From TrEMBL:
It comes from Scopus umbretta. It is an enzyme of class 3 (hydrolase). SUPFAM superfamilies: P-loop containing nucleoside triphosphate hydrolases. It comes from the Eukaryota. This is small monomeric GTPase.
């Protein structure tokens, strides 16, 4: 949620509840107006492997999966999540589904438990993009 709000408003808010939201946002990219719909799902609800998860995957055109560089468990669930997404989306068509892995909390490097190299290697092995960011900064 912090990363989504930072993207949408350029402000950082550190505390969020455990609710999912759908945001809409217009952005000009290469001279074209793009309307984004962002379905922001908290990590507690991402663990679902049922109809809600299937609905989210079918709804989306692309995916940004965020983990905390200070939380190994949030990183470790990514391969399964990505395989689940690819099976659901790519099984229906031959098109590659755009997936980006984002390591958040780069500003908390002193609490880091997942290295940048681990993030890059995971993204490479799963054919995803990779970035490290700080929603706070």
């Amino acid at each position: 949620a912090a990363l989504t709000v930072r993207f949408l408003t350029r402000r950082f808010i550190g505390e969020y509840g455990d609710m999912e939201f759908i945001y809409s946002h217009n952005l000009t990219v290469d001279g074209r107006e793009i309307l984004f719909h962002i379905w922001d799902v908290p990590s507690s609800q991402q663990a679902e492997e049922g109809s809600s998860e299937e609905k989210r995957i079918q709804w989306a055109d692309s995916f940004v999966l965020v983990y905390s560089i200070c939380d190994r468990a949030s990183f470790n669930i990514l391969p399964l999540k990505i395989q689940f997404i690819k099976a659901a989306k790519e099984g229906q068509s031959q098109e590659k589904v755009p997936i980006i892995i984002v390591g958040n909390k780069r500003d908390l490097h002193h609490q880091r438990v997942v290295s940048s190299e681990e993030g890059r290697l995971l993204a490479l092995s799963l054919d995803c993009g990779f970035y490290e960011v700080s929603a706070a900064e």
